[in-house]
Amino acid sequence: MSTEPQEKNIMTPGEYLALERASLDIRHEFYAGEIFAMVGASRHHNRINMNLARELGIKFKADNFRCEAFSNDMRVKIENGYVYPDIVITCGDAEFEDNEFDTLTNPVVIMEILSDSTELFDRTKKFFHYRKIPTLQEYILVSQHVISVNYNSRRTTIKIPEI
């Protein structure tokens, strides 16, 4: 997904959440008072997302993991904002910002599928924000153009080579 900045209009987190919860057809990310419309994803992006989410769900169910994967529409709270990762995983009890149960606060794994318009942002600023989430253990970046996965862990960072 790519983000397009909206008209520069500073708003509070509460105003953003009210706007976002009322929006039926478009999602927005929120950073330090600014909102960014989420632009539609490519066919390859959607295929990768669906395949990853399906395989994770099958694995979690088969192995009786206490983990749950959410795809695209689960908002995650970050410092000074809110984002929509392509895939987010929580283990144990999911924790939410409020009783709307639509803003996850304890992700363990976040996966982003890279596109031309988001790759630099996903690798830099978004990664910077994600590293501040205390529960986050792994950040995985998946290319949609070549077979390439970057795996970032609290313990180590490795790059799985292109095939």
From TrEMBL:
Coiled coil: none annotated. It comes from Desulfobacter postgatei 2ac9. It comes from the Bacteria. Pfam families: Uma2. This is Putative restriction endonuclease domain-containing protein. Residues 15-146 form the Putative restriction endonuclease domain.
